[in-house]
Design brief:
Length: about 350
């Protein structure tokens, strides 16, 4: 699936960057092939516009913020949060041309990040119940670009069969490759999958797991949120420590995504420091990134095309693919992939002149 070619994916919220990154001025971001400029209004709330001045197409992200509005760095044309041009400094006494504006997009702050939806969202931003809950601390672990697709990252998150191989350098048990089974529940937002997984617990992980057992367990209550968010709900039963990760795999363009990761823990900084936890998860995530960037980002969601073979433990990934396929079908779309993108583009081009002619005749 080529994410930039599926219009319905524009109708979901995606995490783009920490709000703090906007403290020193506007920032660019590419979401689903659309170039955006982000900044903070005077009240501190985020704004997202197309990153293109309607005067001479300069990137607005090269400009600056003044009185909560964005000023183009080329000629000073100024835009408000709706995208309307409100000032042309070279001709202050003339009326601003009708239609002088740039597209605006929905933006809001949630969990310390800027979230953007390019079109009317079908669902709200996923709920993180631990956020702000007494006894939990929130840690911004990282946000980084990966050269893969959000689908690959999502299904890998629920793939218990890769632990023994991809993560053999830390918690994976190479001599025990048979994955623990999931108890599976589909929901209105995606699904919940629960399991108990044995892991190797090296000394470097004792403060993370809260136990010195050489082999310990993770009780996982994981959740998938359509299309590209997930919860890794880990509790270490031996210690009672919760290690709960939320990810948003934000699609930047085909073959390129931003992985955003939050961590919630029910212990203290003295028991396991923020930096220890970042370093621990960064090493694991780097192993995932390395193998996922070696896969084909154009992952097939229509399994009737039989592009890949599967095994029993692939069920979560297959459910993700089916739910994505159902989403496309419900909105009158077909899966767009390398094999048909040229044909679909040609068909659209052939249909365009007739539609344009009909529109002009009307």
């Amino acid at each position: 699936m080529l994410v930039t070619q599926q219009p319905v994916l524009r109708r979901f919220w995606y995490a783009l960057m920490p709000m703090a990154h906007l403290d020193d001025g506007p920032k660019p971001f590419r979401l689903l092939g659309t170039d955006l400029v982000l900044w903070k209004q005077a009240d501190g709330s985020p704004v997202a516009l197309a990153d293109r001045c309607c005067h001479r197409t300069a990137k607005l992200s090269r400009g600056f913020v003044e009185n909560g509005q964005i000023v183009c760095g080329y000629h000073g044309w100024t835009y408000d949060c709706s995208g309307a041009c409100v000032r042309i400094p070279q001709q202050p006494d003339l009326q601003i041309p009708a239609g002088a504006r740039v597209p605006s997009y929905r933006a809001q702050e949630k969990y310390g990040y800027v979230w953007v939806a390019l079109e009317d969202p079908l669902r709200p931003i996923p709920h993180f119940p631990e956020d702000g809950q007494p006894g939990y601390r929130r840690i911004f672990q990282f946000h980084e670009e990966w050269k893969t697709s959000p689908l690959r990252m999502m299904e890998n998150s629920f793939d218990n069969a890769h632990f023994s191989y991809v993560h053999k350098a830390n918690f994976g048990i190479l001599e025990n490759p048979k994955p623990a089974p999931y108890e599976f529940r589909e929901t209105d937002y995606g699904f919940e999958a629960e399991t108990l997984v044995p892991i190797r617990n090296p000394p470097s992980g004792h403060r993370v797991t809260g136990t010195t057992e050489p082999i310990t367990h993770r009780h996982l209550v994981n959740r998938y949120y359509l299309p590209f968010c997930r919860r890794f709900g880990c509790r270490y039963p031996a210690s009672g420590v919760d290690h709960i990760i939320y990810n948003c795999a934000t699609p930047m363009e085909d073959g390129r995504m931003l992985l955003v990761q939050w961590l919630y823990r029910n212990d203290t900084e003295a028991q396991c420091s923020r930096q220890e936890l970042i370093d621990w998860d960064a090493a694991i995530t780097a192993e995932d990134r390395d193998i996922l960037e070696a896969t084909d980002f154009d992952a097939c969601i229509d399994t009737t095309r039989r592009m890949e073979f599967h095994m029993t433990s692939d069920k979560p990934g297959l459910v993700i693919r089916r739910q994505l396929m159902d989403l496309l079908t419900a909105h009158g779309e077909v899966e767009v992939h390398r094999g048909n993108v040229g044909l679909l583009a040609a068909q659209a081009a052939q249909a365009a002149p007739a539609g344009a002619a009909a529109g002009s005749a009307a």
